[in-house]
Amino acid sequence: MLVRKEEVQETKSPKKSSETIIKATRPQGRYKRKEREKRANAYSAQDLEGILLWTYSLASLKSDYNSSLGLIIDTVMMMYPF
Fold first, then answer.
1. Is the pTM of the predicted complex or chain greater than 0.90?
2. How far is CA 1 from each of CA 4, 10, 38, 67, rounded to the nearest angstrom?
3. Highest taxon of the source (predicted)?
4. Per residue of the chain (82 residues), what is the pLDDT tens digit?
5. Fewest CB atoms within 10 A around its CB: which of 31, 41, 61, 73?
6. Residue 51 CB contacts under 8 Å (≥ 6 apart), including other chains
7. Where are the alpha helices (DSSP H) in 1-82?
């Protein structure tokens, strides 16, 4: 039996806009979130300070490197104009 596509589309009932599907949180997601919170709360103030200072020092080294690299490029461009 052949059914035309138009007929199939008409037989499907349209979804109501007022119906909302609530997706339940999977146990795995809850577990991961709780474990992440435990790890974050396990840090002491000294640990957090060390992490932040280390991150800050890396950022400052990167900016120093970028500024030095910029000076080198400018010098080379002045010596060898294209």
1. no
2. 10, 17, 61, 75
3. Eukaryota
4. 555 555 555 555 555 556 777 766 667 777 888 888 777 677 788 887 777 777 777 777 777 777 777 777 777 777 776 5
5. 41
6. 43
7. 5-11, 27-41, 45-79
Ranges of each domain in the chain: 32-82
53 CA to centre of own chain: 23
Gap between the Cα atoms of 78 and 82, Å rounded:
9
CA gap 10, 8 in Å, rounded: 5
Q: What are the structure tokens assigned to 21, written together?
A: 């599907």
Measured in residues, the chain has a length of 82
